Amino acid sequence: MHEQKSDPEEKSGNTLAQTYSHNVGQVVTLEPYHDAVFGDIGGDGPNYRNVGWLGTVALMMKTQIGLGVLSIPAVFNSLGMIPGIICLLVIAAITTWSDYMVGAFKLNHPEVYGIDDVGRLLFGKIGRGVMGVAYVLWSGMLSISIALNALSTHGACTAVFVAVAAIIGFIFCSIQTLGRITWLAWVGVIAIIASILTLTVAVGVGGRPASAPQDGPWKSDYKLFGDPSFVDAISAVSSLVFAYAGTPGFFPIASEMRDPRLFTRSLIICQSLVTAIYIAIGIVVYYFCGSYVASPALGSAGVTMKKVCYGLALPGLCVSTILLSHYVFLRILRGTKHVTQNTLIHWVTWFCCTAGTIIISYIIASAIPVFGGLVSLVGALLGTLLSFQPYGCMWLYDNWRGERTRIWYLMVGWCVFVIVSGMFLMIAGTYGSIVSIIDSYTVDGGTSAWSCADNSGSS
Question: Distance between CA 458 and CA 295 in Å, rounded?
């Protein structure tokens, strides 16, 4: 037998009877233990508490980096580079605080697994239902269909590619625990970053973007300050919200950490890297492409480079579908032995949950196959609802009866600001996004629901 030693990560809000193998570093369950979310863990069932802090960084970054980064250059085109950077930093600051509240709330309430549990604590059954439905509607399939369109040079109807994306999503979402997909998260992060860095180099050395005039002299028409209409401006801000709206996905990650107290460490690393990547990519791609930047941005460098970029990004886009589809399973079986035991009910429920979630996402991606419109709409309607308002309410829920110090009053003011700004962005952003989607349906050559049109950006 290997010599055993205790791992400090195993001491958390729930006492875990686990140790690390001294030589190989693999978790060994010495005896069953009880978790406030998953119940009794042990035996031959899945171990849901097996994510370290570094694996948490990978899962967080993959939850954040996805569709959103591909819309940032177009956001800068709408707002102008300087207002775009300012808005991005403001959204980053607000959502980083929201992300921090995920870890703090989890330590205070170990029984919380997902945003729906928060809704139940704050607002009862109605809150749980609203938050749960909003979380299920989160969609990552449109990006896969766009990638397949680009790689095949629109070799089939877009509706077919969305169906293929649904099948891929079902396969990936059937992996049970986050501990088992940490390595996939790293693959996904590297794939997405590699694709956007390739795009950045391509637009920097390629001379001109694919949709710009190909004859005569060329100079980028980027703007430091834009002059957007209200609809364009609020839609652009909603896209930035979407880029940082991985917040609800952090709850399951915190729940599956060995030590949730290390959540903040992982969060700081994640948000710092994500914000640096967003700003760098947004500035460089928009600087070289100007108003001819494609949305999604991977279509900006021409047909060949578009295929290269989407080919690199595809693994990461597939991984994105995993991280947002697990909580329904626990919502149904929580409190039963079937959560952590490999029973027939366990597996039937698991596959039914993943299939149901994928079907709903398929309907959304097919009904709104317009990249910019879907990103903006999801950011406004769901991104703010899941990343702004609840977290101000969470702080007030835990601290309302605290000592009335100056810091307390400042925090109350901050929470009110987060809630009110979230409500404004949700209402105004949803309106702006719907107007933009309607306009995209009516323009010459525009796409529509269940369309066969190519949705992969400029060629």
Answer: 8
Rounded to an integer, what distance in angstroms lies between the CA atom of residue 151 and that of residue 121?
A: 46
> What six digits make up the tokens of 230?
């209200």
Query: Are 185 and 62 spatial neighbours (Cβ–Cβ below 8 Å)?
Result: yes
Neighbours of 427 (CB within 10 A): 14
Count Cβ atoms below 10 Å from residue 159 Cβ, excluding itself.
Answer: 17
Distance CA 456, CA 447 (A): 11
- The pLDDT tens digits for 181-240 are 677 778 878 888 888 888 888 887 766 787 778 777 778 899 999 999 999 999 999 989
Over the stretch 288-306, which tens digit does the pLDDT of each residue have?
Answer: 889 988 877 777 777 777 7
Query: Looking at the DSSP assignment, which residues form a beta bridge with residue 34?
Result: 40
Distance separating alpha carbons of residues 376 and 366, to the nearest angstrom = 16
Are 310 and 298 in contact, with CB atoms under 8 Å apart? yes
Cα–Cα dist 369/200, whole Å: 25
Spatial distance between the Cα atoms of 76 and 441, rounded to a whole number of angstroms: 23
What is the C-alpha end-to-end distance of the chain, expressed in Å?
60
The values of phi and psi at residue 5, to 5°, are -145, 155
Q: 358 and 170 in contact (C-beta within 8 Å)?
A: yes
Amino acid 307: pLDDT: 76
Q: What is the mean pLDDT of the chain?
A: 77
Of 101 and 145, the structure prediction assigns the larger pLDDT to: 101
Within the chain, what is the greatest distance between any pair of CA atoms?
74
Question: What is the distance between the alpha carbons of residues 153 and 5, in angstroms, rounded to a whole number?
Answer: 55
Cα distance between residue 383 and residue 247, in whole Å: 9
Which of 11-25, 114-128, 213-227 shows the lowest mean pLDDT across its residues?
11-25
User: Which has more pLDDT, 166 or 414?
Assistant: 414
Measured distance CA(113)–CA(225) in Å, rounded = 43
281, 72 contact by CB (below 8 A): yes
How far is Cα of residue 238 from the mean position of the Cα atoms in its chain? 14
Report strand pairing: 39-41 vs 33-35: antiparallel
How does residue 5 score in pLDDT terms, banded at 50, 70 and 90?
A: very low
* Alpha carbons 76 and 416: distance in angstroms, whole number: 28
Domain residue ranges of the chain, discontinuous segments joined by +: 52-442
Contacts of 53 (CB under 8 A, 6+ apart): 9, 257, 259, 262, 263, 265, 266
Dist. CA 390–CA 158, nearest whole Å: 36
Instruction: Tell me the three state secondary structure of residue 359.
Output: helix
Under CATH, to which class is 52-442 assigned? mainly alpha
